[in-house]
Amino acid sequence: MRRVIPAVFSAVVALFVTISSATAAQPAYGFKVGEPVCYEIKITQELPERSRTTVNYIKYRPSAVSADGQITLRYDWATTSTSETSGGSTRTMGGRPPAFLGGPQPMDDTPSSETIIDSLGNVVKVTRPSANLQLDDLLGPAYGLMLLPLPPAGQTTWNTQRPVVAYNESVRQEPGGMWGHHDVTTRTERACKESVTFTAAAPVGDLLTVQRTYDLASDLKLNDTPVDHLSGTGQYVFDLKKGAVKTFESKLVYAMTQENVSIKVPVTVTARRLEDSELAKMKADVDAQIAKDAQQTAEREKQEAVGGKEVRELPAGMTKTKSTPSRGGGDFIRINAEGKSVIGFSVTHGSWGGQKVLRMIQPLYEKPEASKAKDAPQVVLAKDGYALGGLWVNADDTNVIAIRPIFMKKNATNLDIKSAYVGPWIGTLSGPSRVRFGGTGQFVTGIFGRQGLNTAAIGLVIQEADPTDDPNFKGDPKPKDPTDDPNFKG
Fold it and tell me: What is the pLDDT of residues 342-397, one digit of tens each?
């Protein structure tokens, strides 16, 4: 993956130039310790072939207010959903409110994330600025997006100018790591100059509206054109009573110029402060989701008590079938420590890019207790006296989409192929891909594959290969498996 949109990450003290003056009462930020302020922020990029909108949340947590009005802040940021529109169709990923809106524990409570502003919203100090989250399209560090400046005393129009450093990041993936790959990032930095003009209108009630004209250009130019250039206009409304920004709107254009290539990306930012009633509802939703997740975890642990356990290596006497292809996730092997045969599955469902997929697949070795939970795992079991003998799989190169068990009658030493029947498809079929594993009469003792957020790949763990699996075997031919047809009804 290559990121071609720079982001500001450092700056020096701004220079203020007075244009005109007024006698309005001096507005000031009024953050209070123990009273967080939260915003919903939508950022839309009109890329050459698609538009992309992210929904983000930021939570400012004041930790100290000095006698001269300086405010020490810590912040949490989360992107909760991303929507991409191309060719008239829209795909949305994510959607949950961020956990930090619900739980009492912040995501990051370390002093390294602190930002200090004065009463006018000007940044006085940032500890480790390069460690803070940076936004695309030269929008700068996330912590500064809603810390917008107020007019200096006696002024209605003012200008700030400062040098900043922008960077391009390119990211490539290399094999290895927990998820089967890891990112290697290369950064190229560029010096830029930022100029912003602000014009404040007369307050209306408790609201002060400020117009903003923004321009940032790289020092590096190509034929007198900045290589990186962000410009546009917008406005924000400051709540004089609350002492914080209420809304912010900005329409910008990011232009990147290189040899024989020129790209312009319109960028729209809209933000609003969340009211107490909205935060209360979001907190209730987050707390309900946390409770739901805890319940599902308890149910899964209960299922695991009668199901397989994770191991690093196969015990003697067991081997693997082939598996579906995927580079995502990390390797897993789930078997029964006592070598019991699988009699069914416990499955939870998820999604990936709008596609329904299988999240967690747990082999079962005995019948679990029935669950009354609304979102309990789906359980499919063999008839009494039968066990898993094979598996049909519907998958793509990223996730396992659906599985269909093949059950066979148990004998003393193997499974009776002629007695085979197929269970229902678990999951929602998608595409023509169908592959079968097992089905040769050997006991299935577990599953293996790759696991990320969802199940990325799956295969079967079976007893050591029967001699009839050898193509040079001269004995009796293997009986025909009636489940070779995925639509076989038994």
Answer: 999 999 999 998 899 999 999 999 888 877 777 889 999 999 999 999 999 999 98
Which has more pLDDT, 247 or 294?
Answer: 247
Contact between 159 and 17 under an 8 Å Cβ cutoff? The reply is yes
Cα of first residue to Cα of last residue in the chain, in angstroms, is: 47
d(CA 36, CA 273): 11
Q: Judge contact between 296 and 348, C-beta under 8 A.
A: yes
CATH number of 307-484: 2.100.10.30
- 10 Å CB burial of residue 449 (0-12, 13-18, 19+) is buried
> Among candidates 222, 211, 167, which has minimal Cα distance to 190?
167
Question: Does residue 300 contact residue 307 with C-beta atoms inside 8 Å?
Answer: no
Q: What count of other Cβ atoms lies within 10 Å of the Cβ of residue 55? A: 18
Residue 344 main-chain phi, psi, to 5 deg: 170, -170
3-state secondary structure of 341: coil
| 87/85 Cα distance (integer angstroms) | 7
CATH of domain 2-274: 2.30.230
Tokens 């962000």 correspond to 230
Q: Which residues share a beta bridge with 65?
A: 71
- The full set of domain ranges for the chain reads 2-274, 307-484
Q: Tokens for 350?
A: 């998820």
| Total residue length of the chain | 490
